[in-house]
Specification:
By secondary structure, the protein is α+β, with helices and mostly antiparallel strands. Helices cover 19% and strands 44% of the residues. The chain is built from 5 helices and 16 strands. The strands form 2 sheets. An 8-stranded mixed β-sheet has the order 2-3-4-1-5-8-7-6, with helices on one face. An 8-stranded mixed β-sheet has the order 10-11-12-9-13-16-15-14, covered by helices on one side. The two termini are 30 Å apart.
């Protein structure tokens, strides 16, 4: 398969990564929760590992320098064919480029940026590393959703930078937009108004598939994490919002078939 064929279409979420203070205990938590194994990633990123599920890459975890006190959060990466052009578009459309564009060894070229509402995301131009190579099985990232105040303004930003088509759910009390690439839903924007956590602001949420949401939520607590929103039925399936021991928020989902 050629590199062109394995690369994701621009705008498609292609990777999730997490930067933490304690790399070893974080690996232990996710290994116990999702069955992940780990191998070292590009040394140019500092201490960094790639999580594997049955040998397939699913996510990345890196270690923050001791003097860096950044929010601990999962970061969604969106595919691009040209990280430099994407960085320029982000700035032009009112976003902020925080890191890059820079090369991650021979793996690819990355940008870490924030949208006009302050939500942090990455853009990934694949070279040797195309991103997550398995989807749908328990322990894999299966969806990414932006939680923001309202979707209209920030939706225009993502449409312009990544060329999405959009499908809005029209409702007086529900502000939800699905973003599509070549007619296929790839991620969503959810306007929650004043329900947005004041301490987090706008942020991207990663959904990880699990075999049993209730059991996985119990495991999170046993392993030193916290359950923020207990298991409940949602349109996507049975979900629970949790944090790992360092406070990174993510959602467990047992997707509807």
């Amino acid at each position: 398969m050629s590199q062109a064929e394995t690369r994701r279409t621009p705008g498609t979420p292609c990777w999730v990564s997490l930067m933490v203070h304690g790399l070893a205990p974080t690996q232990e938590f996710y290994a116990a929760l999702f069955g992940w194994e780990f191998r070292p990633g590009p040394a140019s990123l500092g201490p960094y590992v790639r999580a594997l599920l049955d040998g397939a890459e699913v996510a990345g975890i890196g270690q923050l320098p001791p003097d860096r006190h950044l929010p601990i959060a999962w970061t969604t990466y969106l595919a691009t064919d040209d990280a430099d052009a994407t960085a320029e578009a982000i700035r032009h459309c009112g976003g902020t480029v925080g890191v890059g564009p820079l090369d991650a060894g021979d793996a690819g070229r990355l940008v870490i940026a924030s949208d006009p509402e302050g939500a942090v995301f990455g853009a990934w131009q694949a070279q040797a590393h195309v991103g997550t190579t398995v989807a749908g099985a328990p322990g894999t990232p299966v969806w990414n959703e932006l939680l923001t105040r309202e979707t209209s303004t920030v939706g225009k930003f993502y449409e312009t930078v990544f060329g999405y088509e959009k499908e809005a759910m029209v409702s007086a009390d529900f502000d939800h937009v699905t973003l599509l690439v070549e007619g296929r839903p790839v991620c969503s924007l959810h306007g929650v108004g004043h329900a947005l956590p004041r301490d987090k602001g706008s942020h991207w949420m990663t959904y990880f598939e699990v075999a049993d949401t209730d059991e996985a939520a119990r495991r999170v607590t046993e392993l030193g994490g916290h359950v923020l929103q207990p298991p409940r039925e949602a349109s996507s399936g049975r979900v629970a919002t949790v944090t790992d021991p360092e406070g990174a928020v993510f959602t467990l989902v047992r997707s509807k078939v």
